[in-house]
């Protein structure tokens, strides 16, 4: 069996805070002006990715993993996660602020929802002027202070706001209270989980005048009340894999590609490439496939050798 780079059909999510940048900047075929998320690679129940190219076009990613677990996931990943694909990849367009929210850790998520926790990272593709994110508390806090400010609708006043620009990267461990602010286009890499506790939604209502559900009580045990450092500084050495995040759940590198780079893999883990700028090709088995800004591609672990060629900025993600 000749394994090849896999792309998947987009799974678009309409959101109260979504916009049109997924179309205008990333050329995705959205038909609504409220699309907040494009799920690029997912095995979340009800939202499993479908192969969009090549011999396996139309197949579910979960089906491929069942048939070729070591070859798709990698020997090391299969030992650790069995047939579960452990990561979820998205692009997000925040036309408005997202709700202020938090994600539970593995233990809490397992106990309450029988799922993974949700450690994640953000890479900022595009930022409007003065765009910002909320990440954690300004100083060490506690449940009482949090609840008091929540009751008084002053929660943002005790949270840390950070102005951002394209190329910034942030790592959010579970328990970090956070929000993506208006005017941001973001690549998100996270554990396979769709568990979010919404703390505060700026008193927004939907088209029918309804507010969205809050999860104040569930969040109490999940929140890390200490101030955290989330921004990741990283090198940008050309044609090298520059480390951005290295955690137990995923490793993310930044590759400023300018020309051709030969890649050799051990077969222990799959690799995902997210193109955040420019155009590049993957050359393998005497074939070439081209990718552009906003494309996401899964390299099965069985693809041990290939070449990246082009002029692009690429996120490289795998499990160490």
UniProtKB/TrEMBL annotation:
<dbReference type="GO" id="GO:0004476">
    <property type="term" value="F:mannose-6-phosphate isomerase activity"/>
</dbReference>
<feature type="binding site">
    <location>
        <position position="120"/>
    </location>
    <ligand>
        <name>Zn(2+)</name>
    </ligand>
</feature>
<protein>
    <recommendedName>
        <fullName>Phosphohexomutase</fullName>
    </recommendedName>
</protein>
<dbReference type="InterPro" id="IPR046457">
    <property type="entry name" value="PMI_typeI_cat"/>
</dbReference>
<dbReference type="InterPro" id="IPR049071">
    <property type="entry name" value="MPI_cupin_dom"/>
</dbReference>
<keyword id="KW-0479">Metal-binding</keyword>
<feature type="binding site">
    <location>
        <position position="103"/>
    </location>
    <ligand>
        <name>Zn(2+)</name>
    </ligand>
</feature>
<feature type="domain" description="Mannose-6-phosphate isomerase cupin">
    <location>
        <begin position="242"/>
        <end position="318"/>
    </location>
</feature>
<dbReference type="InterPro" id="IPR051804">
    <property type="entry name" value="Carb_Metab_Reg_Kinase/Isom"/>
</dbReference>
<dbReference type="Pfam" id="PF21621">
    <property type="entry name" value="MPI_cupin_dom"/>
</dbReference>
<keyword id="KW-0413">Isomerase</keyword>
<feature type="active site">
    <location>
        <position position="198"/>
    </location>
</feature>
<dbReference type="GO" id="GO:0005975">
    <property type="term" value="P:carbohydrate metabolic process"/>
</dbReference>
<feature type="binding site">
    <location>
        <position position="178"/>
    </location>
    <ligand>
        <name>Zn(2+)</name>
    </ligand>
</feature>
<dbReference type="InterPro" id="IPR011051">
    <property type="entry name" value="RmlC_Cupin_sf"/>
</dbReference>
<dbReference type="GO" id="GO:0008270">
    <property type="term" value="F:zinc ion binding"/>
</dbReference>
<keyword id="KW-0862">Zinc</keyword>
<feature type="domain" description="Phosphomannose isomerase type I catalytic">
    <location>
        <begin position="9"/>
        <end position="115"/>
    </location>
</feature>
<dbReference type="Pfam" id="PF20511">
    <property type="entry name" value="PMI_typeI_cat"/>
</dbReference>
<dbReference type="InterPro" id="IPR014628">
    <property type="entry name" value="Man6P_isomerase_Firm_short"/>
</dbReference>
<dbReference type="InterPro" id="IPR014710">
    <property type="entry name" value="RmlC-like_jellyroll"/>
</dbReference>
